[in-house]
């Protein structure tokens, strides 16, 4: 068959509703699996869609790679997003009850410096762990918030402004800070 005939057949096939399967972009390839993970964790279909929309917006703005229904991974750590209707982030484990407690708690992994978008460890959680590297804080965190220094004992994190000028060190780990202010902070150094 010659090239002209092949192109004509493909054009006719597409016009009649048949067609050529196009590969989905890599960012969307895993979404059905994450949708299933969300519903397996007790979210309704609309809540799973709402969570995916939040993740998609964060990926578009901050980059990274989605690695779970409520998680974006970066070279320097991860960002966890609370499930719809919940205040605190959590690992998805097939049960919704684990994330609904109304007590202030941190979920910061050991050997990490963690920031939270809301006070008392609520909202999104961003983990940082590599020393001597400046990391941009999530751009939507403009005020309030909290943080937890859960690094090895004695390690200190550092805050820097938007021009990468040093502001101050955190107290030595382990150290909780249920009330903070992200407004002056542009960058974070874990240690």
Automatic annotation (TrEMBL):
Keywords: Signal
Signal peptide annotation: 1-23
Keyword Signal: yes
Domain of life: Bacteria
Name of the featured protein: Secreted protein
Organism per entry: Streptomyces spectabilis
């Amino acid at each position: 068959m010659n090239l002209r005939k092949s192109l004509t057949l493909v054009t006719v096939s597409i016009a009649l509703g048949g067609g050529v399967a196009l590969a989905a972009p890599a960012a969307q390839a895993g979404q059905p699996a994450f949708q299933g993970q969300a519903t397996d964790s007790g979210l309704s279909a609309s809540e799973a869609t709402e969570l995916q929309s939040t993740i998609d917006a964060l990926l578009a703005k901050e980059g990274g790679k989605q690695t779970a229904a409520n998680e974006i991974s970066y070279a320097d750590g991860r960002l966890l997003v609370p499930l719809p209707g919940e205040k605190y982030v959590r690992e998805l484990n097939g049960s919704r009850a684990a994330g609904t407690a109304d007590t202030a708690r941190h979920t910061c992994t050991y050997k990490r410096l963690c920031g939270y978008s809301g006070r008392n460890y609520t909202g999104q959680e961003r983990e940082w762990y590599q020393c001597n590297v400046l990391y941009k804080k999530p751009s939507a965190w403009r005020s309030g918030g909290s943080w937890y220094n859960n690094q090895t004992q004695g390690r200190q994190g550092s805050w820097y402004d938007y021009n990468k000028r040093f502001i101050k060190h955190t107290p030595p780990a382990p150290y909780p800070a249920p009330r903070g202010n992200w407004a002056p902070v542009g960058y974070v150094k874990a240690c």
